Amino acid sequence: MAGGKETPRQKMISLMYLVLMALLALNVTKEVLNAFVAIEENVQKGSLLQFERGETSIRDLKEALADINPEKVKKVQYYLDIISKIDLETAKEIEAIDNLKLNLLAKSGENVSVVKSMDSETIIWEKYSKKDPLKPSRLNLLAVAAKDQFDVPMHEIIGEDLTNITGKGKDLWNNYNSYRNKLCDFVGTYSPPNGKNWSLKSYSINDFKDNEDLTKKVDAMLAKNPFNVNDDKEVIKQLYMELSKNEKYDTKELKGVHWIGKTFDHAPLVAAIASLTALQQEILTARATAVTHIKNRVSTGDYSFNKIMPLAYGPSIANRGDEIELSVMMAAFDSDNQPAISGNGSISYPGNGQGLLKTRVNGSGEMLLNGTVSIRNKSGETKTENWKHTVRIMEPQGTISLPKMNVLYRGHDNELLGVASGFDETILTPINNVKLVKKGAVYYAYPQSGRTCSIAVSGRNSVTKKTVQLNVQTFDVINKPQPTVYFGNVISGQKGVTASTVKYTSRLFINYPAGILIKCTDQIKEWTIDLNGHSESGLGNVLNQKAIALLKNARPGHVLTITGSYTSIGAPSGNFLPFSIKIQ
Questions:
Q1: Longest Cα–Cα distance in the chain
Q2: How many CB atoms lie within 10 A of CB 217?
Q3: What are the sequence ranges of the domains in the chain?
Q4: Beta carbons within 10 angstroms of residue 325's beta carbon
Q5: Which of the four pLDDT bands, split at 50, 70 and 90, describes residue 340?
Q6: DSSP code string of 474-520
Q7: Structural contact between residues 149 and 108, judged by C-beta atoms closer than 8 angstroms
Q8: Which residues in 14-26 are b (16+ Cβ under 10 Å) and which e?
Q9: What are the contacts of 59-63 at 24+ separation with CB within 8 A?
Q10: Are the beta carbons of 110 and 144 closer than 8 angstroms?
Q11: What is the distance between the alpha carbons of residues 314 and 391, in angstroms, rounded to a whole number?
Q12: What is the spatial distance between Cα 111 and Cα 143, in angstroms, rounded to a whole number?
């Protein structure tokens, strides 16, 4: 535009064009600077909101000091002391950053000695005070004259080298990372009265490729600490990662640029102050999250809960192939005020706050159902827990019966074992003409007079206490068979019994004839022994001395006979079948 061949008029036009372009550039710069002013204003308001969020949690916690439970009061005071330590560290950071902002303004020639609320011509509307150590100064950057001043921020914060910070940004960076580590340690280290001891020691992680890489490194750091993983891990990770920044960056012009250099290099005064205010907001946000989480360890309010746990319930017994339904929920309770329930009848808590899970039972023995349940707290943090539920699987059964041989013996201990398929308990009930006695898992049936009797079989679910009658079985009733007597090991009519065997046998036994499988419980009442026309009598199953002496006379060809009676349980006494052998 200013070449040697241009006419004076052309040169004048070119010069006017350059002036116009400069004016347009100045106008754009002013708009951009005013945008930073607006951003800083919004961030200031956000900082105050985060400050108040933390204060609200502290007020709620302090109200619990009036609780009548002394143990709870001790716990509340313990956590308030931890919060006080957090606020002390937070105040140091807020004040240091505030001082840096005022220093930048002063060295840029701005008036920071006047404090006048809501005055458009005054920069400081509300100055930082030790009375409210967590509240940053309230600034009005519209009143700043040197909005585009960038030499002072660069010199004061960065120094001379973007890769090696020598200005006040060095302390800013170190203090910010130190605050992050201390805050996480305050949240993860505690040993409340009558509680467990937890501890956390964080270290700085400021070199990571991306958010996924940072997550892995934070997990690895936390894994080295004996802290409360279930209750605190997600919150600590959130705090650490939200306060973490990569220390070094590579640009097209320069490698290893420090975060401080990248953030404040050629930053206009109002942009530098807006960035510092953003750091204050990050600190106050983290403080509010930490304080709220600590407050939630103690119940507050009229109806309060400070613990949550997964809960899954449903049938504990099912048949293979059945469809079952589980209720899965997150249960809340106050660990400092344990609930109690009572009632005369069924207690139910349907609907609200639960999910239903349906599945089909398969396999055998036991079936383990499990999964996760998640819930968000008031701060939007997600809490995830594992749940599990075990179902005992019953095998459906089919049986074959002999209807013509359903027989119970009158006067006998008839053992009965019932099976109620699909239930874990079986119950037998007399219907008519029979008495039942249960001993352990076995029932004993004692039929009365009559030709038949009936017994019901029912199934009972030991969990739900529900009993269902499944069948009524009818039995024929007959008298117990007549037993026979044994002379030692010799049965009636046995061949080849010698005189020597007879002489040395001194006991009698009673049993049922071969082919009858029921156990004989009868007892010999009395007996008479006849040997070749000579006889002796006695009681019980042991022969007396006279009978033994008689048997000493046994000779080949003699005939031995035994007659007598027996006693029976639940039936009249009777005569046992006669015994007779011919001695060889």
A1: 173
A2: 17
A3: 8-295, 307-335+354-394, 403-479, 484-582
A4: 10
A5: very low
A6: EEEEEEPPPPEEEETTBPTT-S---HHHHHT--BEEEEPPTT--SPP
A7: yes
A8: eeeeeeeeeeeee
A9: 60/295, 60/300, 60/301, 61/294, 61/295, 61/298, 61/300, 63/300
A10: yes
A11: 9
A12: 10
- CATH architecture of the domain with residue range 307-335+354-394: Sandwich (2.60)
Q: How far is CA 35 from CA 29, 41, 114, 531, in A?
A: 10, 10, 25, 133
Q: Which residues are within 8 A (CB) of 464 and not within 5 positions of it... i.e. 6 or more apart?
A: 315
557: which residues sit within 8 A by CB, 6+ positions away? 582, 583
Look at phi and psi of residue 263 and say left if phi exceeds 0, alpha if psi is from -120 to 50, else beta: alpha
Q: Which of 62-71, 178-187, 352-361 has the lowest mean pLDDT?
A: 352-361
pLDDT at 319: 60
Please report the pLDDT score of residue 512 as a whole number: 82
Residue of 357, 405, 409 whose CA lies nearest to 568: 409
Q: How many helices (H) and strands (E) does the chain have?
A: 10, 24
The larger pLDDT score, comparing residue 569 to residue 104, is at: 104
3-class SS at 442? Answer: strand
Q: Do 307-335+354-394 and 403-479 come out as alike in CATH topology? A: yes
User: Could you give the C-alpha distances from 379 to 289, 302, 382, 545, in angstroms and in order?
Assistant: 8, 20, 9, 99
Q: How far, in whole angstroms, is CA 333 from its chain's centroid?
A: 13
Q: What is the DSSP string of 201-267?
A: --------SSHHHHHHHHHHHHTTS---HHHHHHHHHHHHHHT---SEE--SS-SSEEHHHHHHTT-
Instruction: Give the phi and the psi of residue 18 in degrees, each rounded to 5.
Output: -65, -40
Rounded distance between C-alpha atoms, residue 230 and residue 191, angstroms: 16
Which carries the bigger pLDDT value, residue 35 or residue 285?
285
Nearest to 456, CA basis, from 440, 441, 467, 465: 467
Q: What is the pLDDT of residues 4-25, one digit of tens each?
A: 455 666 666 556 555 544 444 4
CA distance 251 to 454: 95
- Neighbouring C-beta atoms of residue 368, cutoff 10 Å: 9
Pick the CATH number of 403-479 from 1.25.40, 2.60.40, 3.90.1200, 3.30.450: 2.60.40
